[in-house]
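User: Can you predict the 3D structure of Amino acid ABC transporter? Sequence below.
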Amino acid sequence: MKIKNIGIIFVIVTILLLIPFTKVNAASDGYLQKVKDKGTLVVGTSADYPPYEFTVKQSGKTEYVGLDIEIAKQFAKDLGVKLEIKNMNFDSLLVALETHKVDAVISGMNPTPERQKSVDFSNIYYRGKQYMLIEKKDKSLYKNIHSFKNKTIGAQTGSLQYDLVKNQMKNNQVKGLAKLNDLVIALQSGKVNAVAMEEATAKAFAKNNSSLEVINPNFNVDSSQTGSAIAFPKGAKSLVKVADKTIKKIQQKDLINKEYIPLAGKYMTNNSKQNSMWNYWSYFAKGIEYTLIITVVSVFFGFLLGVLLALLRLSKGKFQRAIAITYIEFIRGTPLMVQVMFVYFGIGALVQSLPALLAGIIAVSLNSAAYVAEVIRSGIESIPKGQTEAARSLGMSQTITYRYVIIPQALKNIWPALGNEFITLIKESSIVSIIGVGDLMYQMQLVQSATYKGVFPIFITMVIYFVMTFGLSKILGYFEGRMKHA
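Assistant: Sure. Here are the predicted C-alpha cells for Amino acid ABC transporter:
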C-alpha cells in the first residue's frame, strides 16, 4: 500500500511540476489552420456604418468599402487567403461568430467586458469618441447629455452607444434599431430626438445630409470600452495573434489616418454625387430575383409538405395525427424571424456549409407548409362525405379517391385562400434579409447605406412589392375563373 501511495504521489508531483512548462501553442487551437486550409477568411460585418464599412456601386456591382474593410483585406493578405465579406445585422454578428458562420467580425465593434465573456478580441485598432447626431434646427437646444431630458434617443441595438444611453441617460427613453439607416430615418421623421453613434460615423452622415448636425454630448466612457477591435470565436488565439501583428503593422504606418479614412471619404463623396435611385436599379433588380427565387421554391416545397401534413392530420392513426398537429401548432406559434435564425444559426452550426439563401428557403418553406396544411385540410373537410362513399362504392381505393375526386374539388374551394398564402409569402420572404440573403429588403438597405437616403428607397421597395403581389393576384384570379368554368 505504501509503495502504491508513493507512486500516486510521484505522478501528481510530476504533473504539477510540468504544468508551468505546458503552455498551449497558439497554433494548436486549429482556427488558423482551418482558415488556411479552406483558403478563405470569412469576415462578418454590418455595412451601414460609414466610414467603417458601407457599400458603393462599381461597374454595376456592390462593393464593400471603408476602413474596416481595408483592415480585413490586410488581415486576409497576411494570412495568405482570400477575403469573403458576409453582411448582416449588427446584433446578429456575434451569433454568427459563435456558430462559426464567420471566422471574424470587423464592424467597429467595442470589446466590452460583456462581449469578452463569449468571444475573443484583438488589440484596439482605432479609437473614436461617442457623438450624437441631431437635426440642425435643434443645434441650439442640445449641448450635452443633460440637455436631452425626457427625450427619445436612438441607438443601434447591441452597441456600446445603446448601453451608454441606457445607463447614463436614465431620464430618457432609448429606441434601439438594428440598422443605423433606420435610426437616421427615425431622427428625420421626428420619432427620435437624437441618435448616438461613433464620432466618425456621425460626421459621415452629417457631411452627406445638410439637415443633420453632430455634437459631442460628453458621455462618461470607460477607456477599456472604447475603440474598435476584431472579434474572434472564444479560444481562437492563433487568429488573434496574427490579427495583432496586422494591427501593429497598420498602426506603425498610420494607414488608418493616412490611407483608409481618406479613401472612405472619397467613396462617400462619390456616393453623394451619384445617389440617384436610377443608378441603383441593378440593386433592386437583384433583390427581385432573389425574392422570386425564395418565393417560388418555398411555394413548391411548402405546398408538397403542406399536402402531406394535411393528409397526416386527417388520417385515422393517432401517431400520424399527433405528428402533424404538433408540427403545425409549433410552427404557427413561433415567429418566422426566429425560425429563420434557428435554421441558419442553429442547424447551420451543425452544417457549417449551409448557405444563407438555402437556410432562408428551408425556413420559409417549413413555415408556409404549416399554413398550407390547414388550408388544404379545411378544403378536404368541406367536401361532403357522400363523395368519398360514392367513389369507394365504385371500387376506387382511398388513394385514387383522394387523387381524382376529393383533391380536385377541394382545390377549387381553397384556391382563394391558397393564393392569399402565396401572395403573403412574397412579403414574408423579406425576413431572410436578417441573415444576409440578398433579397429585395436587403438590397433596399444597401441602397440606403450607399445613398444616405432613407425614405425614397423604402417607397420604391413598396411599389415593387405591390407590383409583384398585384401581378400574382391577377394570375391566380385568372386560374380561379378557369376552375369555375371547368
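The radius of gyration is 28 Å. Confidence is low (pLDDT under 50) at residues 1-27.
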